[in-house]
Design a protein that fits this description.
The chain contains 5 helices and 26 strands. By secondary structure, it is an alpha+beta fold. It has 4 domains: 4-16 and 168-312, MoaB/Mog-like domain (Molybdenum Cofactor Biosythetic Enzyme, Chain A, 3-Layer(aba) Sandwich); 24-42 and 134-165, Molybdopterin biosynthesis moea protein, domain 2 (Alpha-Beta Complex), CATH 3.90.105.10; 48-128, Molybdopterin biosynthesis moea protein, domain 3 (Molybdopterin biosynthesis moeA protein, domain 3), CATH 2.170.190; 322-389, Beta-clip, CATH 2.40.340.10. The strands form 7 sheets. The chain has a 6-stranded mixed sheet, with no helix packed on it. Strands 16-13-17-21-20-18 form a 6-stranded mixed sheet, with helices on both faces. β23 (337-345) and β24 (348-351) form a beta hairpin. The relative contact order is 0.13. The chain binds ligand LQZAQKY5 and molybdate ion (MOO). It comes from Tsuneonella deserti. Its EC number is 2.10.1.1. Residues 341-366 are annotated as: Disordered. Pfam families: MoCF_biosynth, MoeA_C, MoeA_N.
């Protein structure tokens, strides 16, 4: 059995992106850049009005000035603002040659083609200079950065029609167990329970950058499991198997990958919950086995699957431990390093009362994992502990 740190280290070593692809900007949200986005244009491309009003020469104020034309965003005024003249202008429109200022229309009085201004020039010129946002060639979003909704605006604004991103790892989730029924059907089937874990694991993997191709329920029948494994290995870069990780007579999660030449990278980690978690390689794909107990599955998915997925998708950095203050006592750690489910409250982290690895209800409010090391004594409110967003 290896330690959690050793398992996490192995995961990080393996988790390298499998090549890049170019995608249209409309499909780039959430992806991770394989190449930086540099500006293809100056922004704005020309000096532009920041307000609706009149473009003019400051020294001509307060007028009256002769109105000689209009400048709209998308169709500017081709002429020049000569002494004693002005041009009607709208926000975003190019400022015509000769003008050095836009006066807002609220301070203008117009009669036919004569415009006078009630206020002095003031300090604001209401002009956004060419390239004042960014210049051609400027680095806007660096390689390795995820394309957030905010970064998407800068990348599209840079005139990038497509971007180079790391390929998303394709994931198949196989939920094993004779007792599992689709949610909504368990109550009508004696001996069955709802299959819950694959939904959480798939959503978590997507949240960290995977593309989930499929999630399947498979009964504890070795032939059916081997068929499911072979089909998953054909389509996916990464396969997650839930359940059957322990030592029961029908625990086939590893056996089902043996015909594909399963090579185990680790099997069992000294952590609580989640001891039976394992990682292997078969037919050139990665296979991660999560325990069937729902809390164990979600804790191991957060601690080992999330870093695997972020590494494969080029992003990295899923294990950012932060110090948090305890708002309630934290029990002493036993022999196995323990990841205590806790709730974040305004006064700090509150360890949850229910810590059963088979529980599902506490997952709703467990937004933190608190890390406690083997044999660590109990901790008191006010103490600082290591925590991870769950
Ligand atoms: N003799 C031993 N028994 C067990 C050990 C051990 O070391 N020696 N380890 C325990 C630990 S720790 C864990 S964790 C569990 C994990 O076992 P498995 O991965 O084999 O999980 P299952 O037996 O298949 O299921 C456990 C539990 O979870 C329910 N389950 C399974 N899959 C789902 C699902 N997709 N959705 C909802 N619920 C699921 C299943 O019905 C069981 O109740 O083993 C201990 N045993
Ligand atoms: O790891 Mo098991 O998750 O301790 O019950």
């Amino acid at each position: 059995m290896i330690s959690f740190d050793e398992a996490a280290h192995l995961v990080l070593e393996l988790a390298r992106p499998a090549g890049s692809e170019r995608v249209p900007i409309a499909r780039a949200a959430g992806r991770v850049l394989a190449e930086p986005v540099r500006a293809m244009i100056d922004s704005p491309p020309a000096d532009a009005a920041a307000m609706d009003g009149y473009a003019l020469r400051s020294e001509d104020l307060p007028g009256p000035l002769r109105l000689i034309g209009e400048s709209f965003a998308g169709s500017g005024f081709a002429g020049t603002v000569e002494p004693g003249t002005c041009v009607r202008i709208f926000t975003g429109a190019p400022v015509p040659t000769g003008a050095d200022r836009v006066m807002i229309q609220e301070n203008a009085a117009r009669t036919d083609d004569r415009v006078s201004f009630s206020e002095g020039p003031g300090t604001a010129r209401h002009i956004r200079g060419r390239g004042s946002d960014f210049r051609t060639g400027q680095l806007l979003v660096d390689a390795g950065e995820p394309i957030t909704p905010r970064a998407l605006v800068a990348a599209a604004g840079a005139d990038a029609g497509e971007v180079a991103v790391w390929r998303q790892p394709r994931l198949v989730v196989l939920a094993t167990g004779d007792e599992l029924a689709p949610p909504g059907e368990a109550r009508t089937r004696p001996g069955q329970i709802p299959e819950s874990v694959s939904y959480g694991v798939a959503a978590l993997a997507e949240q960290w950058g995977a593309r989930v191709l499929e999630t399947c329920r498979v009964a504890d029948d070795l032939k059916a499991l081997e068929r499911a494994a072979a089909s998953a290995l054909e389509q996916a870069d990464l396969i997650v198997v839930t359940g059957g990780a322990s030592v029961g007579e029908r625990d086939f999660a590893k056996t089902m990958f043996e015909p594909a030449g399963l090579e185990l990278l680790f099997s069992k980690v000294a952590m609580k919950p989640g001891k039976p978690v394992w990682l292997g390689r078969a037919a050139g794909r990665l296979v991660m086995g999560l325990p069937g107990n729902p809390t164990s599955a979600m804790v191991t998915a957060r601690l080992l699957l999330a870093p695997l997925v972020t590494g494969l998708s080029g992003r990295g950095g899923a294990l950012e431990w932060q110090p948090v203050r305890l708002a309630a006592p934290l029990a002493a750690c036993g022999e196995r390093e323990t990841f205590v489910r806790a709730r974040r409250s305004p006064s700090g982290a509150e360890p949850l009362g229910q810590q059963d690895s088979g529980a599902q209800a506490p997952l709703v409010e467990a937004d933190l994992l608190l890390r406690t090391r083997p044999q660590e004594p109990a901790r008191q409110p006010g103490d600082i502990v290591e925590a991870l967003e769950f």
